[in-house]
Amino acid sequence: MERPEEIVQRQLEAYNARDLPRFLAEYADDIEVFRLPAATPAIVGKNAFADFYATQRFNHAGLHAELCGRMAFGSKVIDHERISGVRNQPFDVAVAYEVRDGLIVRTWAIAAE
Description:
By secondary structure, this protein is of the alpha+beta class.
């Protein structure tokens, strides 16, 4: 069985390639995306997730996530990423991923600003 950090690494590589099908393949159909401090998910389900990334992220030619650090324990992986190509300046974000049965089922993100 693959380690959760291998699955998270694959989705990061697909993100940087702006390869939506490969990116989505790492996520469960019932993916929930939280943007902290909100207590309710900002995105629920793979269709809404795909639409967001197709229209709000992968449409940016300069999109890139630099991995600044990673912690992995149990089913959780926490990445510190520096995102370029979305805003005028790069920004830092921490993203926690929960992996179950080989797929990412939940993410929590908090941006530096």
